[in-house]
């Protein structure tokens, strides 16, 4: 902020170059080095600057009371740190790279699409595409059968005169689906058998509810505790070191 303000408001040619711990001795050695160009003079100049910075560091640290003002101490340490990269920057390892590395080194193969389809079949939920088609059929049937709706005249009479035309209007898609006359369960079963996302044959028919689907939640909680070996009991509290006995 100080540098930006100086560049905006101090005219060029009037900006003084500041070197920490530069004193009269440093100025004398620098003038002597410009005159003779000897390496010993340059070493003396660098040693003088290093000694001045060390003395400044020691004086600043000894003056700080670390017992009562830790914030001031850390602020001084940050200001005197020569590293320009210190601060809250972006981490070198991105979260996506870390996740990809975990997937690469893991034993099990991750297939989100297959896992999602299998989960929906286990919960007896049709795929999104089939549910959207069924919702379109229901909406189109309601519009077609109710002549009092304003949209009925728009899609029937003024379909060709609409200002914004679509290459695939929804009413044509709905009419095509009605002509196919394929039920939701039938289409779902055909797609399931064609793709076969369940390699282990856990779900043979996704349209039917799986065994235990109607069990109450209390029983499923108990089964999951038995399956995972974790639950709210004294043994697990002792295992997690939350209880001593």
TrEMBL record:
InterPro entries: RdDP_mobile_element. This is Uncharacterized protein. The lineage of its organism: Eukaryota, Metazoa, Ecdysozoa, Arthropoda, Hexapoda.
